[in-house]
Amino acid sequence: MSLLDELLERAGALPPEQQQALADEALAATAGMKWIPNPGPQYEAYFSEADELFFGGGAGGGKTDLIAGLVLQHRHSRVFRRHFKDFDGVGGFVPRLTEILGSSSGYNTQKHVWKLGGERECELAAFENAKEAEAYQGRPADLYAYDEITHFEETLFRFLMTWNRSTKKGQRKRVICTGNPPVTAEGRWVIKYWGPWLDPQFPNPAKPGELRWVTQINGEDVWLDGPDLVEVDGEMIKPRSRTFIPASLEDNPDLMDDGEYSAQLAGLPEPYRSAFKKGDFNAGLQDDAWQVIPSSWVLKAQQRWEMRRRMLEDDGGIGRMTSLGVDVAQGGPDKTVLAPLHKTTFAPLIREKGIDTKNGADVAGLVMKSVRDGAIINIDCGGGWGNSAFEFLDSNDANVQACIGAAGTTARDRSGKFQFKNKRAEWYWRFREALDPETGDSVALPPDGQLFADLTAVRRKKSEESTVIQIESKIDIIKRLGRSTDDGDAVVLAWANDDPDLRRERKSRNRKRSPHAQRSPQVQSGYSKAKEKYSRRR
């Protein structure tokens, strides 16, 4: 029972005249406030001491109202949405704050800045990619509020949080995130980020509203026992506190009373109904119709990794490294990513900031430090970034291959029916086949949220030829997502051209599984004739 619930229970036990006196006192105390939180989760979130709060789950829980109420209490607020148009629609932040204030006086629609009186102001901000996010770099605000946090990329969210600060002594600084459970792969990072509350496999679950402390060590979140300073790379760091407070329509009397919104949520198809009405973070993902790798296949590979890791701990490792996939970033916001593959088990990815791999020598040094057992190094040279690193490695007699995704190929898929537009299509489709739970290669992937998002983000493109598999280029993906799928590309590269003996072993294993004919892949070609042929052959 929360403190608020306890106080309400005590108040309910008072005689009627004392209850009325208490109500009159509360009304007098809040008479000057333009907004007060509803009892329950909204109240708990409003007064939470967490540095980073995630509030929401179910639709209609009062998420936008919470942000509006907090904006009125902070000196400098910055509210984020994916697009500026999202602020203005029905139920959006601008009409709601206008309703609370009684007018939109002080709001500059060109600069997206709202003067709230005195020193208080609120800036509305929107970004889709790293370039747009950099516009807010170096500009501090004591309140960062993300409306629909699952629409944002984790790396950019972390990047901007650096400027959640204030020069005014005693000013409260906090990050508020609101949202519903993600129904696409791109937003699933929030489940790991708030793992103690949202991840059913987290070893030490937390209660709603409970504070937990966390800091980053070597690029990974490390959960700590309390708020005490911790030493990281010789520097004493103060951990940040996080919490999650669930809320649903039932907690918001402003919407619940008429029953109309509840009926709308009840009529949604799955998984939206479970996600939005029930706030279920374990609701099934809605894969895109043209998604190359199904989300469930990646999740099974990650579950397989956990089981395999426990079995291999006593053996001191996961065997020899057979290949190393390298996706190169030289400067900029992207990262150079290395994916070590040990037969069919991937080790945790190695990530370095682009600024720390500014040239070919830096990348080559990182690769040589990471590779072992004479593994084949497959480096992406398609965009030109990996060329100098390849030359450094090749000149030093490393076992390295230059991988160019746009290059042509005569290969076919396992069924023999489909050709590939280029090597990139071949690599991704081969990895799709490897992850197939029925006919695949029992691949094990580390349980990494960013890797999951990358592998499930890539889509197949419509081709003029119904039997040709073509997927998005990296440029197309960056335009759509606002980021590069570096982690996924590194993993696919590692699988693309590894040990020849292992490739022969895979082919032999596949023949034993299906001695007569391989099962045709479940794909949507978008062409009726191809579908007819597909059905006849089955």
Would you write up a description of this structure?
- With 538 residues, the protein is an alpha/beta fold.
- It has 2 domains: 34-277, P-loop containing nucleotide triphosphate hydrolases (Rossmann fold, 3-Layer(aba) Sandwich), CATH 3.40.50; 295-518 and 528-537, Nucleotidyltransferase, domain 5 (2-Layer Sandwich), CATH 3.30.420.
- It has 21 helices and 21 strands.
- The strands form 4 sheets. A 10-stranded mixed beta sheet has the order 3-4-5-2-6-7-1-12-8-9. Strands 13, 14, 15, 16, 17 and 18 form a 6-stranded mixed beta sheet that branches. It has a 3-stranded mixed beta sheet with strand order 19-21-20.
- The chain is elongated.
Question: What descriptive keywords fit this protein?
Answer:
538 residues, alpha/beta, Rossmann fold, Nucleotidyltransferase, domain 5, 2 domains, 18% strand, disordered C terminus
